[in-house]
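# step 3/5: fold
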Amino acid sequence: MNKVPTKNAMAGSKPVQNPTKNWFLTNAGRRFTLGAAVVAGATTFCMHYIPNTFLLDKYKQFYQMFRGVSEVEVEPYIAKLGEEVMDKLGYHRNDKQLYRYFTAYGFDALHLGSTFSKYGVLIGVPSNFYFKSKADIEYNNITVQGEPIKQKATPEDKDQLLDSLILSDKAKQFALGVQIYEANTAEIFNQSVAPSASIVAYYALSTHFNQKLNGYARPVSYRAFMYTMLGAFVTGMYYCLRDVSTHTMEKQADRKVAKLGLEHAEGGVEYYSKILQRNKVLRRVMGSKGESLFTVSGDVESLVFTPHVPITQRLIEVTKAPEKSSKRLSPLFMDSKTEEVQSEMKKLNK
């Protein structure tokens, strides 16, 4: 008959090791972690790159505007405005063929894809680019927070909102030119590589400090704190570098298009002034929600990071563009303080 081990015998025996305890500290665990970091980095790269290349036409459906079950077609003169800008930018005929247009939801122009890809570029044209006058706008169909805007807007708000949606051809051409220029940069690669590189950098830094500080031999709480600090650092660096890259590209695009001619600079002033005017109306109409989305000046509200250059800064940039280029361009560019620019800036300062 087997004897039951005594208490002392049980106390003197060695505890059974948990085979899963600290598995991530073993060679196999570290190889797994490295593989996971590489897979995560590759996944984040593909999440941005593939929709803008291989799946570009599918990706467009997220932004495509429909009327019923049919796509809203692009007005023929839009392509003409875009081609005129490309001519002034010095684009080759083969480059022009990479650009296509579609009608996008919302009231802001956008672009998908890149000229660095054989799949080309899709320029999203907002529907208000087709409006010739306030009579063309279906005001009763404009909704804010799921409710018709007419239920919240005053007559003055209505008038200012409708006015902000009507753009001249030079304002439309400026907006298209900015999107055309941005699509001809390495933005798609920067936005694809940055998050994946951040993940790999986080893994590399974690491994380095674990080895340097003997972190593998320290308590789990120590490593958890270190990982948290490194994660916050890498995340902050990613967003800072992303914002710097985007801001640089947007400012270059504004300056490049505004310097093409005085009418383009004036178009830029009109375009950004109308955006600010629209945002101010939405801020008032949307109440507390609007105050959390837009500043008093009409910029998009941001807490820490700023994904895009504030509209007020872009307005100032295009206003100064003719002045900066006056020595290189025609005499028509010499006076950047045209009556139209002055008028728009006075409206902004009110």
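# step 4/5: annotate
Residues 171 and 270 are 6 Å apart (CA to CA).
# step 5/5: archive (pending)
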